[in-house]
Structures
1.
Amino acid sequence: MADAGGAPNARRVRIPLRKRLLVRLLIASVLIAVCSVAATAWLAVATTTRALREEQGQALADDMDILARLSGYAAAHPDWTGVRATVRDLSARTGRRIALTTADRTPIADSAPPGASLPPRAAATVDPLRTDTYSEPGAQLSGTDPRVVGPYRLTAEERARIDALAGEQQGCFTRHGIDTVLTRTPSGRTVLTAADGAAAPDYVPERCAEGLYNSLTRTEERALTALQGQVEQCLAREEPSLGRQLFLVPALTGPAPRTPGPEPGLIMKGEAAAVRVAQSCLGQARRAQLDPYVAPVAELFLGGGDSATGPRWNMSPANKTKVVGAAGLVLAVTVAVTAVVATRLVRPLRALTEAAQQPPDRHVRVPVTTRDETGILAEAFNDLAERRERLEAQRKALVSDVAHELRSPLTNIRGWLEVTRDGLVEPDAELLGALHDEALVLQRVIDDLRDLAAADAGTLRLHREPVAVDELLAQVAAAHRVAAEAAGVTLRAGAGERTGAETGGAGWLDADPVRLRQALGNLVTNAVRHTPPEGTVTLTGRRDGDQVVLEVADTGSGIAPEDLPHVFERFWRAEKSRSRRTGGSGLGLPIVRQLTDAHGGSAQAASAPGAGSVFTLRLPAAAEPHDG
């Protein structure tokens, strides 16, 4: 037969490798590391790609904005004298190097320090007479930049007159239910456009077509007359057959609201080749007319240095090796750290497992080496083992005490019955009284055990009703006054000092009066038993806020400080040598605590050797009942 010590070893089961905590932690850590590395690599590539695209798009937008700003400057100035401030401002805003040179690379303006070399190729040519960067943002269109107005710029008086006519025209449209907006073109003319952004309203009411608003100003007429003469001179050289068939018609609003007027157009008849010649002459004449008003053609250089900027992300074999190496390093560090941490976690768990598998009667403890969750678990296990050991000792003591408490009265009853049966003693009234007293003692012990069992099981019933504290104290004092006088002890009962605004009695309780008398009776009986003759036992009650405080104080020998925490334990006696008759059964005070807890209160004890003891019951107070 196997001994008891070998039973735990027989119950041990070898844990499969795949189910061990260390292996699981390693697998989980490796999976997390792999997923993290993969997700980080994918996110880095995706983010870098998107950032490069956004940066390229932003750089392209900045380049177009730089070109548009410089073209606008050239369109409004006859030379580049004051362009340096504009170049510095654009360079500071975009972070790019900006350089303007003539066709032979003679510097005009440069945001870089003097002597810095130019990029190998120009980014664009700034020529507002042949490139339009204004009509469509972000694009370079062929043709004259609309901001080049030259001799078509209106005077202040002409602008005021056109503004007034445009306002009247807008009011006329509004009266006919047509929404329009006023837009000022670079030449200074105010044009009327549709609310949806079109060049002009689709429908023009008859009353709004008086013609004054669309008439040419003197400035525009002079410029168109000069242009007409230059075109005719060109046609006389290129296509004499056209003669006077050419008519220039100004488009005051142009193809879009941003386009200034007048934009001259041709009305003529003839073969297609002749029309193309006329269009060419018109373009040459217009550029010749506007040329004195614009800055000379310039080359625009962006960036800097002789070397081109290389790609910022290149998944070359070297970069791939770096990524793989970094991933492998992360995995290796993860596995190593996990192994160390898991080993430290598993070691105390194994110690706990081995301790839990030991025989119950050994009450094995485990060493507490850390202050983390595992250490807290070890402390909890040790506390559990200590409580189990204590409960086992209490269980053994309880069995011994119950047997002792029941054996004494049963032995007395049996002895008297045996001698009476043998005829040695006559069954007189004195003998029957002694047997009855022993039966009462036996019944009292059984009743106490039954009450404690009911309280532990939660089946202790309370029949609550309004209870006056003063009456309760008087009833308990009356019930125990005879026993107190027999012991030479003075028993006093009454209300104590009241707190707050309380006046009158000690208050009311919503409680079971029978159970409260039982609890107070146990305290009074215990106080009388431990108070020497000519001593005093005082039973008081008082109101303390929302509680009623009941106190039983004596002038007995008191309780030692080391014994005070145990007074409410079952079958506990301060003096182990005391008999049942002098020391009680050891169940009175535990019953007091159980009954007090059942009423939602608390029981406390305070004492000092030679100074007596005070047992306090705190119970929830109730409102005074009103007779209906």
2.
Amino acid sequence: MSVLNVSVWKALVAAVLALAVPAGAVALAPAASASAQVYNPCARLSAGQTKFSGFGANRVTFATAATRNTSLLTITGCVRSGNRYIQEWQDWGYGGQYGFAAQNREWEDTYRSPTGSFSFTEALGRSNPGTALKYYTINSRSRWGGEWNRNYNQYFEGTGGEADENLWTFMNQGYYKQAAVINYNRPPDAKTVLGASYAIFFHAGRAPSAGCVSTSLAAVTRLLRTSRPGDRIIMGAVDDVFTPYSSNPFGAITAKYARTGGPAGWLGSPASPEVTGLRGGGAYQVFGGGSIYWSAAGGAHTIGGAVRSKWASTGAQNSRLGYPTSDEGRGLRNGGAYQAFQGGRMHWSRATGAHVTRGGILSAWAASGYERGVLGYPTSDEIGGLKDGGSYQTFQGGIVHWSPASGARITRGAIRTAWAASGSEHGALGYPTSNEYAFSGGAAQNFQGGTVTWTAQTGARIVAGAIGAKFNSARPLGNATTNELSTGLGGRYQAFRNGFIIWHRTTGAHISPAALRAAWITAGAETGPLGFPTGDARQAASGSTAAGTVQDYQHGRIAIAADGTVTVTLDPPPSSTPTAAPSAATPTAEAPTAQAPTSATPAAAGG
């Protein structure tokens, strides 16, 4: 930003110089601003009492005003000595004519200086005073880009446009004899935004400007001679720069706070000192909009809003969740957010609030696609105390149950309703051992004690016990179309898409196709002469002309030929045991041995 008209700043400078400063004394701003000014910024930086980070730079320069609307500055040079900063020099100067803008609010033609922490990497002037910064020796073609093109907010040489600063002219007027480029709205600190201010310099020739910081040529020259690339300047009004709360200026929390945007970020200004000595050597600091927690294992992470409140209610870092291992991630489905912790994750949505997921349930939910999958967001935390040490968690689209024996499985819809009606994990089915899967034109799910099948036509049906075991060995039967029913005489049966399973305690469970079962019912079913099936239906023996399909029963069999002819065969009743006859080898007197007829002597014909 170019300096003001000479007549304007000369009057302001004259007023300052009228305040006699003894030779050799530190030249401070006039006493009128002393009550609000900070004259020990190096000590404040060492105590972590600045809202803007020095990023551990070797040297940090402060340029602060008593208020945002004051252009008169106290300028202090600090050098790092171990884990603290000590003051090297102090001077006074000017910022923008109208003072400082709030952080990230500086734009063209406001005549305010930007607020924040900015790096030095380049410099310019009449001749290099021995700086380690990249240095441009100004000549008659030297310009600073103000036109909205590729030269915006950078040095170039050429004729330039109307908005480009003529560095040669300003140097010869005394302002840019020496100048350090403040990296506002330019790399490496930020991506350049056209129209968001340019030519912010720390330069010689004290005068209020359109946004630069100006001080004595001696102070600027000293800064250049001692600067390394990456040294910084922290500038702004006292209340925007300093805080009464302390933190480690070289610590992870301070660095994290800087990366969030400092006081202009969503965290806002510090609201507590950094607190150490937490579990596992952790630390935290509270800010207006949230907190930063640090642990050796998880690093430094922000946490705020409903997620922070929920985490605090669980016991914060002392809970099973432990420390955060990520920042809050936003932009999820339906405006949701999440955060990862050492022991699980927290998800939030406007519809469901914040809930914790962890362990096997978290893994099952993740495999289903998190909030984008069929389950949606969690609607409860994990709830324990179930049978055999199990637990469950509810979601918008279903429930996840977990037990040590079965792992974590999803139940939902009609299958879940049928399982719940059977007694859930306390019923005959026990815990789910699979998720729902496509089956026989519908879906099915396996449980410890059986299976539930579903189609739109038949609804959800439970297949369990001995019939369920048989079903699992013969899945071509398809989905169940009825629940298990009684046959009478202690038997049970269940219908399936492609047949039936018939069970009795003395014969077991056996598969019967619809046609064979119909023939069995015609023959009297379990109360008829055949009794219960004793084997599955089978194909007739090869070469047989009697039947295509055969099934054995307790007292016979049914065969159905390829042409549909049904043949019912009953086993003969057991014969009675015959009385033993006398031995032919030992004839008795009462019964002599009969002589057998021969071929020469035909037997007499009966009468």
